[in-house]
Write a structure and sequence with these properties.
The protein has about 375 residues and is of the alpha/beta class. It folds into two domains: about 5-95 and about 310-375, FAD/NAD(P)-binding domain (3-Layer(bba) Sandwich); about 100-310, FAD/NAD(P)-binding domain (3-Layer(bba) Sandwich). Helices cover about 25% and strands about 20% of the residues. It is built from eight helices and 17 strands. It has helices at about 5, 40-55, 135-150, 170-180, 190-195, 215-220, 240-265, 360-375, and strands spanning about 65-70, 75-80, 80-85, 90, 95-100, 110-115, 130-135, 155, 165, 170, 225, 230, 235-240, 290-295, 300-305, 310, 340. Strands 6-15-7-8-11 form a five-stranded parallel sheet. The chain has a three-stranded antiparallel sheet with strand order 1-2-3, with no helix packed on it. Strands 12-13-14 form a three-stranded antiparallel sheet, with no helix packed on it. The longest helix has 26 residues, at about 240-265.
Length: about 375
Amino acid sequence: MANSWRRERWDSLRLLTPNWQSRLPGYPYRGADPDGFMTMPEVVEHIAGFATAISAPLRTHTTVTSVRRVDRGYLVTTDRGALRCRALVLASGAANIPRVPAVGAAIPHGILCLTPFEYRHPEQLPQGGVLVVGASATGVQLADELRRSGRAVTIAVGEHVRLPRNYRGRDVLWWMERSGVWSQRYDEIDDIERARRLPSPQLVGTPEHASLDLNVLRAAGVEIVGRLSMVRDGQALFSGGLANQFALADLKMNRLLETFDAWAASSTPEQQVRAPERFEPTRAPTAPRLSLDLRSGEIRSIVWATGFRPDYRWLEVPVLDRRGELRHDGGVVPQAPGLYALGLPVLRRRKSTFILGAEDDAREVIAHLAGHLAGSGRD
């Protein structure tokens, strides 16, 4: 169980959500550190424990090689035989394959390039400078770890989501849940496609409950440059406009904090939370580099923290869009009756891809599935 956490995560990774939010149906967190953040082995143990507790008829060590539409159902072919079913739920997630931008093909030979699936610890990388491309949760965490290992680190920053780890004495994800922001439904969001493409927030789970943003990285000696836009003749070219990117991320963060404040003023006893607070704006470098010579030896390795995409190579049903992503309406695939999905970004709520978001989404998707099997076909 929890194959991706066993095989596709770096050694020091912890959950971004506090342990008390690691709730699965009928299976809450039962450890001694509810406000801490699970390590990689602890996540594996937690999910495996849930599988044991519910005693579901699981087939482990089984690879699906194709899914095809047949008659009024689906044929699922695996390396251990075939299965037929009237309804099928795709729960393979959206982070199966790292996204490496097209500019990656122009990186000069001799520079080691790794994705987060391949990176395990700093000792994998040669001595010398590292370019981390991307500043979401993965990018800032890896930039911080590599800088702590003594390497010179440059991080290329595009659109990002800034959040403090704690706000008014509570974990920021406590606020996301209690204020109702995380429970906002997909059909209440103005631009659902954009919401589903947003990068993960700049958060890290540490015993110190520390915040990790670009100000912290810069203070630690990480060089900040703009989005990697091109590699030409060995030169990495970075976009300008960092100050605008920072201002936009800060604006969105402050608007979210204002939402928390409004909820607290109307719903929470004053003694439960501290007074409202605001955070220092992201400091833009005075004159950030716009280019970097990748042939000079200054950069010896690159880590692509540029997001992930789903892997549907085995899905032989015409339900994918031009980006190779599943077309669905809240986990229901209208073009293929009986086909459903769970675990995708903002599937039914903003919390859909987090552990505590699984139950609410699953109940609604399975209710639709039950209707389909009963012949009602209701939405």
